[in-house]
Fold this sequence. Notes:
By secondary structure, the protein is of the alpha+beta class. It has helices spanning 2-8, 15-21, 29-33, 95-109, 124-129; strands at 37-42, 45-53, 79-86, 114-119, 133-140, 147-155. It has one domain (2-155): Aminopeptidase. It is globular, with a radius of gyration of 15 Å.
Amino acid sequence: MQRSISELQAGFLSPEQVAASRRSMGLDTQLIQDKTYFSVLDGETIVGCGGWSFRATLYGGNHSEGRNITRLNPKTDRARIRAMYTHPDHTRRGIGKMILDRAEAEAGKAGFKTLEMAATLAGEPFYTKCGYVVESRWEDRNGSVAVPLLTMVKSL
């Protein structure tokens, strides 16, 4: 996750923004506990990970402020696509798509009709290709440096 944040965001964010993004990005073990988080291995090395959530938290890791474990209602709420990371040495090999497809399928099985995520600028082209649309652009101000993010949505 740390290499993904550092290396894949570098072309889209300033060094200060990359450093600031670590305050709101990272591992959320609630996804693992909920069994909604997936990984792809190359041998014993994790080369991609990500998932979905039926919890209210839109983004962030265990260390992030404002986490909310309230369960979402599939009839009225959007499932969350969460914590998508690909190892920088393994990009453009279909790993992210494989994880995203699995997350979307599992959210659909749980009754959700719509998905949303807090996407990074680096992720926007990938998610657009996967059928997501930008609903809003905003900034995470966790600290003194603003990090641009997007809310992206998709109907299943």
